[in-house]
Design brief:
The complex is a heterodimer of chains A (193) and B (402). Chain A is built from ten helices and one strand; from the N terminus they run βαααααααααα. With 193 residues, chain A is mainly α. The longest helix of chain A is centred in the C-terminal third of the chain and has 26 residues. Chain B is α+β, with helices and mostly antiparallel strands. Chain B has three domains: 42 residues, no CATH class; 98 residues, no CATH class; 206 residues, no CATH class. In chain B, helix 1 runs parallel beside helix 3 and helix 10 runs antiparallel to helix 11. The radius of gyration of chain B is 48 Å and the shape is elongated. Chain B starts with a helix and ends with a helix.
Chain lengths: 193, 402
Amino acid sequence: MFRKSKADKFESFIAPYERGIYFTCLRILGHVQDAEDCAQDCILKAYRSFDSFRGDSEPSTWLYRIAYNCCVDYIKKRKGVISLDALMDEGADFEDESDDISPYLSLEESERKRLLIEALSELPYIFRFPVVLCDLRGIDYDKAAQIMDIPLGTLKSRLNRARKKLKKILIKNRELFLSDDSLIDERREINEL
Amino acid sequence: MNCNDARTLLEAKERTPQQEEQLNEHLESCEDCRSYSTYRLDCLTLDDETPLPESFKSNWRQSIKEEENMKKPVLSPKFKRILSLAAVFVVVIAGTILTRDNTTPSKTADYNYNDYVMPPTGLVSGLGGSKSAPDNSFFAVEEAAPQSAEKSASMDATMRSAGDLASGQAEVKAPAKLIRTVDMSISTRDFDEDYQKIIASLKEHGGYIESSTINSKTSYRRQANLYLRVPQEKLDKFLEDIGGLGRQLSFSESAEDVSEKYADTETRLTTQQEKMKRLQQMLSKATSIEELIIIENSIADTQYQIDRLSGSLKGMDSRVNYSTVNISLIEERPADIEQVKEATLGERIASAFKNSLDSIKDFLADSLVFIVSVSPVIIALLVVIIIIRRAIKKRRNKKNEK
């Protein structure tokens, strides 16, 4: 007569998306504790709205939309801004020193991923969202546009700019990542050549 | 294959073997696409090795359990439906019961108590002057008596002394006075015949009809309500004559002894009459205008008391001299007659079952009338409730999406 299994039903529902929600928050906010708080907030909101979810959209789209809104609210609170557009130009804006990504590619996978994580954290928030949703989560462009509530064209434009910025950061950080000894060895090899 | 196609294939979730081969061929020769492919793979597998924090896993589960416990237990939709139906059922039944007396025509006899009227000519024989029907003012006069008595008691000292003198001389001698009233109900197969017999017997014994109504609202049987006045000395004979008619359903007789009351009224009347005589004497001896006015006022009041008390005595005389017989004459149906015979168990069961079915049928009909009568109100309420619920839901969804 009295239904107390809503929590159990929800747990089964959310289980496949648990990691995705957490790491989306982590890669956007860049901080573990913030990501935990934000992801928990997101899941709680999803639970409260669970009864009203009719399945009109895919569960992933619905959940990531809640996660996106939670992250936006979190960032607004942290930065004290009203709109994320104000953060458009935040972050390093590098001159086109070099377009050559191959040095980054020459690194080991673990090193590359570490550089990528650092590069993401330097990316302005407004560019972080499309990269995390489309590149990291593998969400289709149209669904990502739906999640962010922006036109598809806007999403693609931001993603394009985001990737360019990311590339520049990766190239710059690759040099910083490498230790002095490695740099000396590399220069020695070049000189010997 | 160009770079755009290659990137599209790289972003596709599935590739055919042919597409895979083409893509690989392109990647071998295109460094840009190769680097994009590496970047994409790094992105998709970025967090594969990173474990989920245990604190996060347990915290959100605990949160929703706490949320669940804080909430009031939710009734299952099935139970909600049952409750709703039960509530509707109760409302319909209650509404039907409360309103059914107003909606259904009366199935029982309507007793039409007419005002106390003069007997029609032709039905009354052998009546003396004292046996005339009393006025309608009979009861009203009695209630006014104490006030008037008080008023007369506040008169001038000379008037009071005259009244006291008169009352002191009166002697109470009350003969036995009984007002007999008979109530009876008779069930008859021969309604018209028995009705005529009652009237004939009434005429024969010198009585008259005070009022008579015949109720034929119900289709299957009639009922006559007769209020008869029979000379008290002929009452027993009259009752004996009509005793054999039909089947007596009920009988009751009462006798009210009004001797004391009658004597008291007589005494008061005598007192007032004596008072009047004195006042008349005083009037003839009055010397001033003021005295004249006072005495004449007193005479008027005394005359009023005399009239009232005389009327009261007449009324009692009438009721004593003419006993009241109230007869309900009910026409029997063939089914009623059959029920008089000893019913077998089967017949009783069948009869009771049929009565129950009839009751249910009547109740359902009344329920339908009730539902139809309140349906406009219910429809209006439903519309309002639906609008409010939609508005609340919309607001809630907007809030959640934010």
